[in-house]
Amino acid sequence: MSISLRGQQGWMLLETILLGLILIVAASCLPLYQQSIALRQADGARTTALFLAREEYSRIQWRADHNFSALPAGDIGWLGAPAVLHGNGGAYDVCAVVGSGDDVSRLLTVSVYWQSGSQHGLVTFERLLVAHPLKGSGDYAGE
User: Fold this and answer.
1) Cβ distance 139 to 121 under 8 Å?
2) Which regions in the chain score pLDDT beneath 50?
3) Sign of the C-alpha dihedral, residues 116, 122, 127, 131?
4) Contact 101, 107 (CB under 8 A)
5) How far from the centroid of its chain's Cα atoms is residue 94's Cα?
6) Residues with Cβ < 8 Å from 66, sequence gap 6 or more?
7) pLDDT at 98
């Protein structure tokens, strides 16, 4: 009983070539994967910076609502908990600058700098700070 190998010749070479092509394609996808991870980390840092800036705006607005005339023009450091500035795999620094203005409004600029591994960045936001009378203070429009 003899087995014919005539139809099986050349398959080993074809399988080796296909396996090599699959490995080349897989290896070429690794830089894309690394780039997507770096972009995801940078996006996470920018998102954290946005939320830190919003928290700083809220804290300064609260101060302005309670005593707008006592709000000094100039630099204001981070008003929140210091532990919040270390998160999402990085360290953040928040600086707010209250511009000089009139008795009704002032320009508020909040800058957030972050350092995360080898990446760093800076985002700056501006908003017009206006005092909102507190409900029950007698100055509220609804009373």
Assistant:
1) no
2) 140-143
3) positive
4) yes
5) 13
6) 134
7) 92
